[in-house]
Amino acid sequence: MDESDFSIFKKNSSRKSKHDKADATRATGNNSQNANDPWNNQAEDAIKKVIISRPTDEDEYNCFNPNAGIALIFNHKDVKGQKQRAGTEKDRDAMIATLLNYGFDVRVYDELTFAEVSEKLKATAQEDHSQNDCLIVVVMSHGLEGKVYAKDMSYPVERLWNPFLGENCKSLINKPKLFFIQACRGENLEKAVTFTEFAPMSRQIETDVIPPKPPTITYAIPNTADMLVMYSTFEKYYSFRNVENGSWFIQSLCSVFDEAAANEALSPKGAEFLRLLTAVNRKVAYEYQSNAKNEALNQMKEMPNFLSTLTKTFYLRVKRRSKTSD
């Protein structure tokens, strides 16, 4: 995987390149003119501060906080200049029920403008997440390559997670920030292919013992660490939604999470998150195909996928709550 795969996580990189060089010079150089000035001691200490990167033996996120976390749902049925997204209420209501079942503080927003979406994201980033396991943001809308729609306009998908980067949201550092986007990413159609194989033998996987909480140590990690973005479809491809039953992706996501909530997510260990997402990929890939009167749209498939900068294993656990909030 080359660095172009991570370009969506970059924030104004081209405009900051000159400043980055200047900042590096300031951080490592000596200011001889102010060396003997007692009023500048604090500034000198900040300039000379050295950041040390070190390894860690901690390989699991802490999922034993009092709260599951905040879950934002942005649902768009009517988008300016676009066809109405019939059936999106099914996705919204299913997602609400699933996340409430896990104990998330679910906040639902219908038909917001881009300015309103930005305001909600920034306000949430300013909250204290120190007692939460993670953050979830779900967007259901129309989309383009690299963009998603609010009620009034499209915007780059990175606007969803920029408020939650480490430099912008300190209380979510070292906590998973999880984004789920149900939207088209282009106009290409995913064709079906076939294969044949022998039935595999069953096997049983043993669960590990819950590790003790590690001691407090200061670490230096990337600004974009601990994020995961899951898309309903592959880049440049179409995403399917049934007007009566909702979208393939959101319905599959809720189905897999609901099943886990009745089983392993109830255990002290919880359900391994990436395994659940892989199950979502598998469910959509194997169980769904289009049935359209238009032959060009008939018998087509869809392939969800995710991009992850998670640095540890995350286990999703059921923590009951009883209400939604705005």
From TrEMBL:
SUPFAM superfamilies: Caspase-like. It comes from Stomoxys calcitrans. Belongs to the peptidase C14A family. Pfam families: Peptidase_C14. Residues 67-188 form the Caspase family p20 domain. This is Caspase-1. PANTHER family: AT03047P-RELATED (PTHR10454:SF232), CASPASE (PTHR10454). PROSITE patterns: CASPASE_CYS, CASPASE_HIS, CASPASE_P10, CASPASE_P20.
